[in-house]
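Example 3.2
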Amino acid sequence: MKLDLQKFYQVCNPSKTLVVSNPLDRQYYIDFSSVRGGKIIEELKQNITFFSPDEPTCELFTGHIGCGKSTELLRLKAELETEGFHVVYFESSQDLEMGDVDIADVMLAIARRVSESLDNFEKLELAEPKGLKSLLVGIAKLLQTEVEVTGEATIPGMGKFAAGSDGTFSAQASIPGIGELKANEKEGVSLVALGIGKITAKAKDSPELRNKLREYLGPRTKGILDVINEELIEPGIKKLKQCGKKGLVVIIDNLDRLESVQKPWGRPQAEYLFVDRGEQLRQLKCHVVYTMPLALRFSNDITRLSQRFTVNPKVLPMVPVVQRDGNLSEQGMYLLKQMVMIRAVPYLPPEQRMEVVTEVFDSHETLERLCRVSGGHVRELLMLLYDWIKKQRQFPLTRDVLERVIKSSCNQMTLAITDDEWELLRQVAKYKQVRGDEGYRSVIHSRFVYEYCDGEGFWFDINPLLAEAVEFQNS
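Structure, written as tokens:
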């Protein structure tokens, strides 16, 4: 058997999200639901396809950054599409500045992505969205800056949005970085996808522009929601059903990456968006799934959040490497080993992969060491493996190089830990619990503490990398 080190390195890239609908990616997918406390994605799917196919639903999905949420949401997308739904999935971090997000920013991003997706749906034509056009022309008048732009796009119900030969739009109003905008007498202005896309791109890079937009859009939030529902979502669903689809689902990923900063008036950003503005987030008249920051589960506002959305957040926990009592989790470790080995020998069935471990690693114990020190955090495991391959550059991968990689990662992580946080970590390691105060929220957000789930419910433990630290061992 010939192993390909370069290919192994490439498919272990921790920044790559598996797109389950892609056959090349699907071969590397491992289903961890049996050790994660339940079939969470199956629950999300059934809530839409079985319990409320024709009524809007709104779900919250959370977990540690890097634990596999995006892969699972893309799996949900593929399964919903198989069931006949039209699914709009997008990463909000591409449209939003995650350190400064407001409700209007989220709504505009959704409007853009839904309009783009409906525009790409063959033979689906919507009536001209006059309210959205009026809103965006109002923004143009507010900003009053002319900037050169080229390009052309067509958006459902709005016709063409095209640049003139001189690179500018002959128009009545203009937007920074977008150019002038003017309705074509017959077709209207194609502003929904192209216009909003350019506005949000500029706003993401400019705090001043974001502030101007919010001053204008803030009092109009209800109106924005109304026109998105009335001019995009409701007519879009009607047309989709005429084309044989069962409905519309919007999945907004990466909102769990909101930075833990405070708004100018002192309110934490996550609480502001999901609690204070939660009622508006759930007013879209289609099926919606939002990711949210894990730390919100430990906020004093968790009860209010659940009341706003009328659901409890669904949590994707870590893959357990040990059980609550400290004994080895055999099933969790087996699946993690399969996740590694399938990237080395995807053409072998599961039973045979484990027979060739010593061709990839110098021993079975070395592979087990990698899986255990990852704590069942999928991206952490891949990051360690990725760095290991790059340092060694040949098979079999050896224990001594792995130990150097572990030591380096441990040293890097401990640089950020305060004495107070070390004390919190000792309490978590001892009692397997966390409380809702700010200190515990901080160590969870920083991936110093991982969350697991078993038959008794959720439990917690420190990141195994930190158990390697001298500061922890000396305690």
